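Marked as duplicate of an earlier ticket. Keeping the data here for the record.
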Amino acid sequence: MYTVSQNGKMITARNGLKVQPDYSIEDLPPVDILIIPGGLGVRENEVKNDIIIDWVRQQMKEVKLMTSVCTGALLLAKAGLLEGLKVTTHWASIQTFKKDFPNVEVMENVKFVDEGHIITSAGISAGINMSFHIVKNLLGVEIAEETAKSMEYDIDLQN
């Protein structure tokens, strides 16, 4: 697992948490799964950042699975990757999402939406549910259940 930023420099989250990325977008090695996080920075800044949007669009051609958590789906939509797909995002951004991206079907009151090559999740805790779904698909329900048990995370993985 790697963290990445546009320039490889430290990122300060809204709450002051500092994240030192492993790579910049220029030197990130190939990855199989890309998780686009959300949050205030995405809603206010990154959706206007053509460099990031172009990078996300390019990554879609290279990764096996593109995912987003919370408002990270806005970047996927801005990159044109969600046209005609069902998606979800944080509840507080659903109406804006519907208005700004009318060719995307936004699902409400769901934890995540799996469209095969793209999976979007609602708010931050829904990203955990999405992650278990991915583990189940890649490694099987038994491994996903063992992981949930070790985390003491209550989740139904049989569906």
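See parent ticket for discussion. Residues 110 and 122 are 7 Å apart (CA to CA).
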